[in-house]
Design a protein that fits this description.
Keywords: Lyase. The protein is 48% helix and 15% strand. By secondary structure, the protein is of the alpha/beta class. The protein is globular, with a radius of gyration of 19 Å. The structure holds 3-methylmercaptopropionate-CoA (MMPA-CoA) (1HE).
Length: 260
């Protein structure tokens, strides 16, 4: 967990929220191999008691993607293993122990967008812009972007970004599905933290189902998806915590749903 470009701290009354920050602003938080491995290790060894995480970037930008200075002269085999290393790390973010809320600002580009796409909720401020400069650098996405980005915005929009170098601003990025929340400049972290505190209060099995079951159900044929849903629902309902929460509502002791 000790990497000079990756800050970790805990927040909240029970220290239930992890704040994880890329702290390499001089290089716009470009992700070199060491930093990618540190992200993987951190999600593999998340301390007990952490129930949600916020991921953000220090400085003017969230993340400039792959550290291009390390691309150099990799041969095909090394390139394959490098991409697989990114996959393993971002897999730990997406299918890790806790929901991850990305707080976005400035550049969210290339591998930075791939990292953001592995998170569960994205909060963007008005300075955010999204791009996939791989197209103009003569390379391809390699951090899971070809799988995750079409699920957010569709394959046609992703292809357009890479063919033409199109950059989405914060407003259009929210409309097409990059971010679920759009907030004024400078407020993404604060909003992400507020959401993380809220998410951390959910029953752990509900968050588990949202991280691990929902995206897999979405990929299953309908009949299998419905069966997986039923099994996950039965497991979640059987937890003592679920029973207590439902009882609290029936006794008039839990919050009602209100119009927003
Ligand atoms: C970098 C990187 C980087 C900045 N690798 N060093 N990603 C890209 O193609 C995006 C490349 N970066 C940019 O377009 C811009 O830097 C930004 C829009 C992100 C920010 O612009 P700006 O004007 O604030 O900063 P800057 O002056 O361009 O950069 C500051 C320093 O960071 C500078 O180094 P310096 O030594 O001259 O100060 C830059 O060289 C350095 N820097 N971005 C290395 N990415 C798993 S596959 C994923 C594939 C990809 O991600 S490809 C897309 C890579």
């Amino acid at each position: 967990m000790n990497h000079p470009d990756l800050h970790f701290e805990r927040y909240g009354e029970q220290q239930e929220v992890a704040i994880i920050r890329l702290t390499r602003p001089a290089k716009r938080n470009a992700l070199n191999d060491g930093l990618i491995l540190a992200i993987r290790d951190l999600f593999e060894t998340m301390p007990e008691g952490v129930r949600a995480a916020v991921l953000d970037g220090g400085g003017e930008h969230f993340c400039a993607g792959l550290d291009l200075s390390e691309l150099k002269e990799r041969d095909a085999g090394q390139g394959l293993h490098h991409s697989r290393m990114w996959h393993a790390a971002l897999e730990r973010v997406q299918y890790g122990p806790v929901p991850v809320i990305a707080a976005l600002h400035g550049a969210v580009v290339g591998g930075g967008l791939e990292l953001a796409s592995a998170c569960h909720i994205r909060v963007a401020d008005e300075s955010t812009f999204y791009a996939l400069p791989e197209g103009s650098r003569g390379i391809f996405v390699g951090g899971g972007g070809a799988v995750r980005i079409p699920r957010l915005i569709g394959a046609a929009r992703m292809a357009d970004m890479m063919f033409t170098g199109r950059v989405y601003n914060a407003v259009d990025g929210e409309k097409v599905g990059f971010a679920q929340y759009l907030v004024p400049q400078g407020q993404a972290f604060e909003k992400a933290l507020e959401l993380a505190v809220r998410v951390a209060q959910n029953a752990p099995l509900t968050n588990y189902a949202l991280i691990h079951a929902l995206p897999r159900i979405a990929e299953q044929p309908t009949d299998q998806g419905l069966l997986t849903e039923a099994m996950m629902a039965a497991i979640a309902q059987s937890a003592p915590e679920a029973k207590q929460r439902v009882r609290a509502f029936l006794d008039g002791k839990a919050a009602k749903v209100r119009k927003s």
